[in-house]
Specification:
Length: about 350
């Protein structure tokens, strides 16, 4: 037998915003109950079991649809099965407090959403800019599903998952596409009538002698010019500008949900409900707001070593140091051996945690 097999069994959890379970009318079938998605053509195996408190998803994270060709010119990785398990609260708890998250949720087919990228442009003058997935500066090898592949073979969506929308479309405007890690559902509006509340920042970027590099190439980058959406820091959130909140969320028919949109932030970069935190410090970069600024993310030790340790000896010499690190080299080099080690970087970053750059 080939093709897609989707089975669903209803659960008895029906709740509104006060007790937050769902008998939701927008879903193409009851994906709020237990279900299985299998596709022998693509190897998809995803099973979701709903208990009293948790929705558990066990998946090999292989998409149940066509993808682009991988590896490709911008993405050297091959799609491979994963061994993933996710748990989501059956009864989400809305806090109203936006908390950043790297992977906000998982599609109904078991493929994760990860809107940000790991690509960073670093300037000698100290600025660092996180590159967005959708831009014309660097080819990230995205396919028609706005997705590509990580080095471990994990296929993941950076934006609107085109084929997921087609697969789970039931003819209504709102298509149920996944679950966020706080338990709230994720939808896509085919009409696009729900607009995000982000806009491009006025003004000019700063930064000189800027570079981008990955294992395959190194590029000199000019970051000057108007904020055009190339970097996440080009955008600011303005409360009430659109229909959606800071996390691309909205309450419809008494149910809070996140929307995947064709405009920035595309997929939520934060969640409004309670969830177990993921391992990684802080947002990928600053998210300036019109009603108050937010400082940019401090580079991690791993990022500093990756971008400055030219000879890959796991330490940074005075000649390799750039920007603020070069200026404070003697302070960070506590043993005065002419090199900054990983341990010295970690100690310095810990000392200045929460302070200035």
């Amino acid at each position: 037998m080939t093709g897609i097999v989707i089975t669903s069994c209803k659960n008895n959890h029906s709740h509104n915003h006060s007790d937050m379970a769902y008998n939701h009318t927008h879903a193409p079938t009851n994906y709020f109950g237990s279900y299985t998605v299998e596709d022998e053509n693509y190897g998809t195996k995803t099973t979701v079991i709903v208990g009293d408190e948790e929705r558990t998803m066990v998946t090999n994270a292989l998409p149940n649809h066509k993808t682009g060709s991988f590896p490709n010119a911008g993405n050297p990785n091959t799609i491979a099965a994963q061994n993933s398990m996710y748990t989501f609260p059956v009864i989400p708890k809305y806090t109203g407090k936006a908390q950043w998250i790297r992977e906000p949720g998982v599609a109904l087919n078991g493929v994760k959403f990860e809107p940000g990228t790991a690509e960073v442009v670093i300037c000698e003058t100290g600025e660092n800019y996180r590159v967005e997935a959708f831009q014309n500066l660097i080819n990230l090898g995205l396919d028609f599903n706005h997705a590509h592949v990580q080095p471990n073979g994990a296929y993941h969506y950076h934006g609107t998952p085109t084929s997921v929308i087609d697969k789970f479309d039931n003819g209504k405007d709102l298509v149920h596409v996944g679950f966020a890690h706080d338990g709230f559902p994720m939808y896509y509006s085919k009409s696009g009538k729900y607009k995000p509340s982000f806009r491009l920042i006025d003004g000019i970027r700063t930064g000189e002698d800027c570079t981008y590099e990955n294992p395959m190439e190194r590029m000199d980058i000019s970051v000057g010019g108007h904020h055009d959406g190339t970097y996440g820091s080009d955008f600011e959130y303005v409360d009430g500008l659109g229909d959606l909140d800071e996390c691309n969320g909205i309450t419809i028919d008494g149910v809070y949900m996140y929307l995947v949109t064709n405009e920035f932030p595309y997929v939520s970069r934060c969640l409004m409900g309670e969830f177990e935190s993921q391992e990684r410090s802080g947002p990928p970069q600053g998210r300036r707001q019109a009603n108050g600024g937010m400082p940019g993310k401090r580079p991690t030790v791993k990022e500093l070593l990756h971008h400055m340790d030219a000879d890959k000896d796991k330490r940074i010499s005075i000649k390799e140091a750039k920007g603020p690190l070069k200026e404070k080299f003697t302070e960070v080099d506590t043993n005065k051996d002419g090199f900054i080690s990983k341990q010295e970087l970690e100690k310095d970053l810990a000392k200045h945690k929460g302070g200035g750059n």
